[in-house]
Specification:
Strand order of the largest sheet: 1-2-3-5-7-10
Structural class: alpha/beta
Distance between the termini: 36 Å
Low-confidence stretches: none
Shape: globular
Mean pLDDT: 93
Order of helices and strands: EEHEEHHEEHEEHHEHEHHHH
Number of strands: 10
Radius of gyration: 18 Å
Largest sheet: 6 strands, mixed
Number of helices: 11
Length: 250
């Protein structure tokens, strides 16, 4: 990934280093470091997350996840959950620009953002159950955005949600042809907000939802257990060995 600064905004670009801009443990750590840098710079007001290529982010790297033992999986999903929590609670306004596929953990990055801008090329899906997993860390943030039933049906139905529908249900805040034009307008407005008000708004709104500490523990333990299970490891083996997705017949 690379970063670009323009005025009060720091943009992090998932640059296609991994196919589909998949998230590795190292990639999640890098995003934490970007947040550290951005939050330490008092001249920055906005963090923008966007991607290069046809995918915004296709979630975790399945091969790496299948190689992890249960303890490593727990650390990995915990770090990812903490990243989403930081998006939701950072003093910065966090904006995701989705132009392409957002899958699994990529949906989480968007759901935890304060503002999601999407083009008509965008689509969102949670295929984890097909791989023998659950989107454990994604769901608390997705539920906050779209409500329980819609998040639940995305999880069990695994169907792709196109951009227009995503806007209808609240996963996307604005459906735009030109994200940069809308970003400029948003940056102009945000620069007029008194320093500290974004943080105050996030802190107050956080009191309107239950604490996620218990949810984090459940997300970590459930995901770690499932990722160590035979269903997930068998699905990844079939994919890496034969190029066969778990929903395809052998």
């Amino acid at each position: 990934m690379r970063t670009e600064q323009s005025g009060p905004a720091l943009t992090v670009v998932l640059d296609g280093t991994r196919p589909g801009n998949a998230l590795t443990a190292e990639g999640v750590t890098d995003l934490h470091r970007v947040l550290d840098i951005a939050e330490a710079d008092r001249d920055l007001r906005v963090l923008v997350v966007r991607a290069q290529g046809d995918s915004f982010c296709t979630g975790m790297d399945l091969v790496q996840a299948a190689d992890d033992d249960e303890a490593e999986a727990a650390r990995g999903v915990g770090s990812y959950f903490d990243l989403l929590e930081r998006f939701a609670s950072s003093d910065l306004l966090v904006v995701s620009v989705v132009d392409g596929r957002a899958v699994g953990g990529g949906v989480g990055l968007a759901a935890a953002s304060d503002v999601v801008l999407a083009t008509t090329r965008a689509n969102f899906s949670l295929p984890e159950v097909l791989w023998g997993l659950l989107p454990c860390a994604v769901l608390p943030f997705l539920v906050r955005r779209v409500g329980f039933q819609r998040a639940y049906s995305m999880t069990l139905g695994t169907l792709t949600v196109q951009a227009a529908k995503a806007a209808d249900i609240g996963l996307v805040d604005e459906l735009v042809d030109d994200p940069d034009r809308v970003l400029r307008r948003l940056l102009d407005r945000t620069s007029r907000v008194p320093v500290g008000l974004v943080a105050a708004a996030k802190q107050y709104c956080g009191t309107l939802a239950p604490s996620r500490a218990e949810t984090r523990r459940a997300a970590v333990s459930t995901f770690a257990e499932l990722s160590a299970g035979e269903a997930f490891r068998s699905a990844v083996t079939g994919y890496t060995r034969d190029g066969r997705y778990p929903w395809q017949k052998s």
